[in-house]
Amino acid sequence: MKLLAMTLLLMTASITAYASEMTKAESSTINAASSYQKPSDAELKKRLTPLQYSVTQHEDTERAFDNEYWDEKRDGIYVDIVSGEPLFSSRHKYKSGTGWPSFYSTLEDDNIVSRDDYHLVFKRTEVRSRHADSHLGHLFKDGPEPTSLRYCINSASLRFIPKEKLVEEGYGEYLKNFETGVEEK
User: Fold this and answer.
1) What does the pLDDT profile of the chain (185 residues) look like in tens digits?
2) Residue 152 catalytic?
């Protein structure tokens, strides 16, 4: 019994020491990540358009060249329409010619999950948001340098937040991404 008590005491002390060493940035990242949650299905049906619901919840695909962000050129970030988790930056967006928003990199790798998709005859890599498990689109290895990746994403799964509204919308930490030189889009 004494051994168990000592073990618990040591574990508690270790956890307390680790927690006190966490930086403010780590702490805020953990708090922000825990705030990205998937609402109930009933809430999603009320809040999303039929297309947004179909794309994010049932792996549907919107039409090419007939969607909100395929030709968006403003500076800003793209977040999951369901949870608000930050996914992509306009700094990584490029004109792929596919008719869907395409990015060569993610804004937050931890907010993206990929898995094999066999819905068509050939294998593809599906891209989903981590916290809301929203279907976003697909990942291909035919993109530009420096990654050679193309995240081909449905506009219906995204909400665009212009650079000018990042602070107001609670994404001020990403403003620094737009303070350096201009990257090609």
Assistant:
1) 544 444 334 433 443 343 333 333 333 333 355 589 999 999 999 999 999 999 999 999 999 999 999 999 999 999 999 999 999 999 999 999 999 999 999 999 999 999 988 877 788 999 999 999 999 999 999 999 999 999 999 999 999 999 999 999 999 999 999 987 645 44
2) yes
CA proximity to 93, closest of 108, 77, 82, 109? 77
Specify the 3-state DSSP secondary structure of 136. strand
Domain boundaries, the chain: 63-178
pTM score, whole prediction: 0.79
Would you state the CATH architecture of domain 63-178?
A: Beta Complex (2.170)
Q: Which of 152, 153, 156, 161 is an active site residue?
A: 152
